């Protein structure tokens, strides 16, 4: 129930990378930097500094649309996005204790430049995590994490009540609120195994121990089991 005016207003206030969940909505405006959040509110785990809300919106129990304005990346053209589900009420704010249920594989977005840019992306059918039994009327939280190139992450959430996919209380999903701006590209994130967990150490054959690893093991008493080519790049 976030009006487009509010989104426009919120984005106008953005000065660096931030995420607005434009559909189905968000917990509230956390595009704030002030004395309580001197580094910016949206960097706070798990939901960008806003505790559980009670003005929930509705979302289909079978999964549905999520539209984002990933914001403006001062100095970064790319980011990784994660969309997770949190269930339960065991957290101090009465919400989920964690948001540990990924709904889609993480994906990359590619902005047009290192300058700030507006724009919307929308995944029209984000599924529920597999093998989770969710019921109509259940309260859950959807978390969007935007991982910046420097490794810090921005958090934004929306608290929803699950309803049947044809429930009239659902906000209509259409080309006004669910679209991909042409200036934001997508990328797949592949995980390439360079050494499997438990794989035996290769001896000799040009394997290099980097100075950084040697120093770390001396200082911390930490002994790397395998020192391979990857470390040599450090
Ligand atoms: C809940 O209320 C806050 C504060 O008024 C508002 O910013 C937010 O958009 C509302 N959330 C939903 C899902 O309507
Ligand atoms: C900072 O902004 C947040 C969100 O609007 C608010 O809850 C908090 O009280 C503010 N802190 C100060 C010191 O103004
Ligand atoms: C879901 O949340 C709403 C709003 O906070 C609350 O009124 C309702 O009782 C909750 N439902 C369940 C099943 O906990
Ligand atoms: C996440 O929270 C759920 C519900 O409270 C709990 O069952 C689960 O063990 C938690 N998972 C992790 C990884 O903490
Ligand atoms: C879901 O459950 C089925 C049947 O038990 C199992 O084969 C499948 O691997 C499970 N999927 C996930 C993602 O856990
Ligand atoms: C799209 O749906 C929203 C409500 O979610 C509505 O306000 C808007 O008018 C609709 N746009 C079109 C083109 O139907
Ligand atoms: C936006 O692009 C993504 C990635 O290609 C795609 O999965 C999604 O369906 C697109 N959204 C719309 C509304 O076409
Ligand atoms: C070293 O490399 C050679 C040639 O690739 C290979 O035959 C040999 O098994 C390797 N030795 C070890 C200990 O990995």
TrEMBL record:
It comes from the Eukaryota. It is found in: Cell membrane. Residues 1-17 form the signal peptide. It holds the Pfam family BIM1-like_dom. InterPro entries: BIM1-like, BIM1-like_dom. GO terms for cellular component: plasma membrane; side of membrane. It is a lipid-anchor; GPI-anchor. Keywords: Cell membrane, Glycoprotein, GPI-anchor, Lipoprotein, Membrane, Signal. CDD domains: LPMO_auxiliary-like. Residues 16-183 form the Copper acquisition factor BIM1-like domain. This is Copper acquisition factor BIM1-like domain-containing protein. It comes from Thyridium curvatum.
